[in-house]
Design goal:
This protein is mostly helical. It contains nine helices and no strands.
Length: 247
């Protein structure tokens, strides 16, 4: 597993599996119906499968531009892939059991699943923070605009991680103070912020890569990436303002 290309193939395969899992559950939702949103819905395995799969594939690709040792990158990506499987697996299991996956302390088993998902979230934050720090410590490689795209993508991704941690923390407090139903609905204001900021690490580097396939000058490509970063940051700020106003 110390060959970077081997770990890339592994993570891409896991990411594709998670995306397919999300699409399968979209078909289940189409057949079975029910609410799309809420603590018990088919929307959760769909959105989490697609999001975790896309994020794993994106991070695997983007970290190839980071100046990180091959062995360290391999270890971090393997742990990340395993964590993504556990997170989506736990959410999917609870969806089929027709019970909430997060913040569910109703039974010992539900508590174990909920705590596993929370700890998995902590692992996710740690791993992605390490990659984010590496992107700022040493200038990423790649075509014009890629360094800015990668650094901005990881910086915005940290916003997604912080908003996710805030949702879990608030929900746990409400759950432990006897407000279980309120805990399930407390995450709604932060969901747009979390969702928008989660995929910058894919969108911005992908734009830089696509621009590298054009004949435009490096200066022009750099300016386009910078403009895209500004627009994305504006969208994240808007979602943040909405979260504050509705929290």
């Amino acid at each position: 597993m110390e060959n970077p290309r081997a770990v890339d193939r592994l993570c891409h395969a896991v990411g594709l599996f998670l995306v397919l899992s999300g699409l399968v559950h979209l078909m289940v939702f189409t057949v079975d119906g029910g609410p799309w949103d809420g603590p018990v819905s088919w929307g959760k395995p769909v959105t989490f499968g697609l999001s975790f799969g896309a994020t794993l594939i994106a991070v695997t690709w983007v970290t190839s531009y980071l100046r990180v040792g091959a062995r360290l990158r391999t270890v971090l990506l393997v742990v990340l892939a395993a964590d993504c499987l556990v997170e989506v697996g736990g959410i999917t299991l609870q969806a089929w059991r027709r019970v909430p996956s997060h913040l569910n302390m109703e039974t010992p088993f539900d508590t174990a699943v909920s705590m596993t998902l929370a700890m998995g979230g902590g692992v996710l934050v740690t791993l992605l923070t390490v990659f984010a720090v590496a992107s700022f410590r040493y200038r990423p490689t790649g075509p014009a605009g890629m360094a800015l795209a990668v650094r901005s993508g990881f910086a915005i991704l940290l916003v997604a991680l912080a908003s996710g941690a805030a949702m879990i923390a608030r929900g746990v407090v409400l759950t432990r103070t006897g407000h279980q139903e309120a805990a399930y609905h407390s995450t709604a204001p932060l969901k747009p912020l979390h969702g928008v900021s989660l995929h910058a690490v894919l969108v911005l580097p992908l734009l830089a890569w696509l621009l590298s396939r054009t004949t435009w000058s490096e200066g022009a490509r750099q300016r386009i990436v910078a403009a895209a970063v500004g627009l994305y940051a504006t969208a994240v700020a808007g979602a943040g303002v909405w979260a504050v106003l509705t929290y």
